[in-house]
Amino acid sequence: MFALAAATRYFGGELERLTYRYERNLAMRFSAIWLFVCGNLFLFAAAGARADEIALPSFKAQTIDDNVRIGYGTAIGDVDGDGKPDILLVDKKQIVWFQNPPQGSPETSKWKRHVIVENLTVRDNVCIAARDIDGDGKVEIAVGGQWNPGDTYRSGSVHYLVAPEDRTKKWKPIKLYNEPVIHRMRWQKVGENRFLLLVAPLHGKGNRGGKGVGVKLLAYRQPADGGLLWKRAIVDDTLHVTHNLDPVQWDPGTPAEEILYAGREGAMLIYYDRGEWIKKKLPRVQGAGEIRMGLLSKAQPYIVTIEPLHGNKLVFYKSGFARDRAASASNDPAAIESRIVLDDNLSGGHAIATADLFGNGSQQIVAGWRLPNRDKKVGIKLYYPTNKGATTWKSMVIDDNGMACEDIRIGDLNGDGRPDIVAAGRATNNLKIYWNQAPK
Ligand SMILES: [Ca+2]
Ligand SMILES: [Ca+2]
Ligand SMILES: [Ca+2]
After folding, report:
1. What per-residue confidence (pLDDT) applies to 15?
2. Nearest ligand, CA of residue 77?
3. How far apart are CA 324 and CA 338, in angstroms?
4. Which ligand is closest in space to the CA of residue 193?
5. CB neighbours of 385 closer than 8 A, spacing ≥ 6?
6. How confident is the model at residue 269, as a pLDDT?
């Protein structure tokens, strides 16, 4: 009744009179039916009001670098060990880090740019892994270069970077073995103080058009003496074009992180168990370029993808796995309960991150794309469920046509307890922080 009245006021006189007659006649002749309709309208209005009551935070953009050449990838981690997270960027010819300002507000002070390495290979750099793997509070860094997706024989490189005493100076690269077309890398925690470097090529060796041998996803283990002889293991070689992976604590019942791994042929969940890799195909997940884990609650995980590879769709998969119970035949970690397309108006969709940006105990989704969409815009949007079961969703714009997004990371960069968003743009040549202004 309230919703109807509000609508008639909005649309003006003629409709108002018609509605009045409709209301009076029906109310007199079919009072029982009318009461039923009113009840439903009331419920509808109440549900709508609840959804609208979600207090949306605003995000204040700060450009950290407006001279990025490609901005292939970014990472957040403490480089200098002062306790403040810094931003790392893999650009075309340089790998750099931006120092969280030692003094003053990080939202207004300059983030000083330091070159880690430059001209590492003849071709472009493409990926980075930065994480504190030895527990001293400072990140260890590996990078991939010699990027040439057209050469599936000789392209690609993998380097571990040795930190100088003064981490604002140049780092020393150590070249490790590589498969061709190295494309993504991340550190995976496999036990207490034990990490592996996961390295994923885009294509299998010598392949053309995605046909041929499988892509070798490798895990590298740094020798205990810090020497050059890194051992390697094949994690997977069954997919033929892969694009991203996410090492995550999918199953808290195991000390090691699991891996979400996506490619043109679908996606899988990979468990690590005492040097063995156990792979489970994720049913219903279609060919994807990006994949990330999120949490609706601590017990309820989800997966979010961009489909197809470099595609237009952001897709949410509600998991059927209960993280607060042990994995079993009836609590299958790879079970997918539902699939919802959250958006089909990305173009060149290339980045996803999840975090509790609202501070409501549930993780929302941030996604970015790098080519003009149907509205001729690039940008970043934030997606959030409007009900408890996450069956309905809404979105808000984070960056309206100012970020041709290659990569997104989320971390609390000013230590106020609210996660902030970092994005790197290719055609827009920029690196930005979006400061989370949610109420504390
Ligand atoms: Ca720092
Ligand atoms: Ca460290
Ligand atoms: Ca913050």
Report:
1. 33
2. 1
3. 20
4. 2
5. 296, 362, 391, 392, 393
6. 98
